[in-house]
Amino acid sequence: MDVVKFLNDITGNNLLLWKVILTTVVFALAGTQVFFAARLWNVSTFPPMSPATAARVHRISGRVAVTLGAVVAFSCLAGPAGPTSPTRVLLHSIFGTLVFVILTLAGGNDVVALIFGVPVEAMTNILRVAIVVVPLLGFGITYRICRELSDRQATTPGHGTAVRLRRNPAGGFEEIEPD
Predict the structure, then answer these.
(1) Domain extents for the chain?
(2) Which of 24, 72, 112, 165 is buried most deeply by CB count within 10 Å?
């Protein structure tokens, strides 16, 4: 099954538009998570609701944000919309997805800290470093893998070996040594 064709079919050939819309919704939900968490921990009186209601809304909007984020990340990995040069695919799929994953984790850092038994402040500092380091490492590793695969294909007999021909005076062809 061609995943890119399927994604284009369900979006009416507007995959890039829908990825932008879903990403915007995820970032908006992540922003509202801050308000609900502040209300949940009685740091703020906005939005005007009980902490129990804020906790429920925080939990639901967080789940929706993570689900939509996973959909966007999958569509980025399955097939980026638009022109597909190798560098664009590499940046879009790996770098962008890792940034998105780190931001999703940062949006729920209180839950992640609770799961791993780490103080929330320490998890915040870890994610501050990770937002810069992890995408760069992912980009570097993926770039190196792509270069190795490209070099391996170029040295495989029958692949990537160009032959230059010249027509001789008798009407035949002769091979020309590479420069």
Answers:
(1) 1-82, 85-162
(2) 72
Location of structure tokens 């320490």: 122
Q: Which amino acid is at 153?
A: Q
Query: Please, which residues bridge with residue 29 across strands?
Result: none
In single-letter form, the type of residue at position 120 comes to V
DSSP string, 53-72: HHHHHHHHHHHHHHHHHHHH
CB distance 89 to 80 below 8 Å: yes
| Token output for 36 | 């609900």
Contact criterion met (CB below 8 Å) for 165 and 175: yes
* Token pair of 10 as six digits: 């369900």
Distance from C-alpha of 157 to C-alpha of 179, rounded to nearest angstrom: 20
pLDDT of residue 89: 63
pLDDT digits (tens, 9 = 90+) for 112-123: 898 999 999 999
pTM tops 0.70, yes or no: no
Q: Are 152 and 145 within 8 A, CB to CB?
A: no
The answer, yes or no, to whether residue 132 has pLDDT greater than 60, is yes
